[in-house]
Amino acid sequence: MNGQAAGQPEAFIPGPRHPVEDATAGDARGDALEAASPLRRVAAEAERVVGQPVRDVRVVVPAGWGPRRRTWMRQVAHRAGLPQPRLVEAPVAVAEYLLTTGVRVPVGAFLVVCDVGAGAEVTVLRRGPAGFEVLATLADAAAGGTAVDHALADALIGASTGEGQRASVADSVRVAKEALVIHPAVTVPLPDRPPVIANSAMLDEAVRPVAWRVAQLTQETVAAAELTVGDLAGIYCVGGSAQLPHLAAAIAEHTGAAPVVVPEPGLVAARGAADVGAVDTATVERVEVPVPPVRRAAAIAVPGFASLALIWQCLLTAERHGTLGVYYSVSVNWGEFTMAAVMALLACLAAGTVLGSLIAARSPTPGTRTEGGRVSVGILAAVSLGAAIAGLYAVVTSQYFGMPVGPYLKWALWPIAPVSVMAVAMAVVAARQWRAPHGGWSALLAAPTGSIVAATLGMGLIQYSLTADRWPDRILWIDIAGRVGGLLLGVAVVLAVVTPLMFRLILAAPLAVIFAAIVSRRAAGMLGVIYAIAVATWWATRLWSRVLRPAPPLPTAPPTGPVRADMSPGGGG
Hints:
The protein has 21 helices and eleven strands.
């Protein structure tokens, strides 16, 4: 194989389980035919060993693969002459293997699988009554054995060497890497040149950035699953490169929990795939799922109560004119009415992940039970529920006052339209599992509580100043209340639009003064719409900076001193 790779380095794929991005986008038929050749050899050898045709085929695939790649893998198996395969996600297979070896993972417990092979894939799983489910997974093709091989090859033959020569020494470099795990130095034969000596210091230098990146992935994946290290039943390292030096120590330093390197880590996923579904979960020990954090409940309750308070005040303080005459009209604070609809939508979106979990638990569709499926369904359900509540506000208010429903629907639904559109975009991202936002989806869907509280109090004071009985001894205080309400509403807009503290301090004062100056009955509706636009801007910023174009993590320099690896009792050295 490597002899052919030296002649055609561009056609050599060192990690077949991690094909290039174009593998399923271009000539899918040709790619499937090429990938079917080694699978056909495996099937022939299996038939020779067991003496009969293969009937049950299980193929291990990364947890991050979407429907397109999974379909491509099924085509590969079909062209290899195999029956319809069962695709088993690698971390699920590893977790099933851990159960068969006596590792205690109660129902409801969480664990992390660090699969470090040619690349790295870190996955957080939860054990449910019917098996393991993936909560979050992050991968980096440049954080694995291939990157170590390239760095070690650069140290041995030079970074300027061509791809053909690099492919010709790939086997020698790989063998040297594995030998240096247990030997201080080895001799590496090279074609067309004298052999060279590779020592453990060279391996350490090549491994250190890879180990550091895997540790970062582990930390980010746990955060994306909205967990802490204290919630985990364990961190387990598997894959052909799991025994590299410094890997366990780097993960322990980043997370605060020492990982376990599973014995024979390169074979764990394959062995576990055969055991998927074989464990009886009816009699296993169960644990309760951790209660959601208080801040998540507050993110739902605060905008919910704010919405109810605003619509309650809007109904009770609206002024009716010409009650006994022919010309009947009602003066409604459209700004307060609009903000009540916006707050209702924000409360529903904050509860999006909870709604998704409830729907998935009762849905027969497997796609809704994955992390991305739950989040996507939850966001769509939240948008629908928020729009329904806003429409209900419009209908109830119009019937309460005996007025046409059209203006009320306009002020309730149009301001929430931009936020709804961006929420649907987030649902698409979650369904396609392009990436999990840092901090998890619940943190992403929660609107800033400080802005909500300030806006609600501000609009409440404005409405009080517009509708209170203006007795001579109270006029001054009523006017002051209205100006204070304008100040609070201006601060709420700044809190929603701007994130850096320095910019908030710079913008809050002038905007608050402007809002306080223009407080009036005619301007109240405009102020409410401005806040709705501010919320839409906040969502657009979150969608862009956290999901579509997230900023890369700040590079953390690996330690320059010697790293002491934590060798677990069951680790394969």
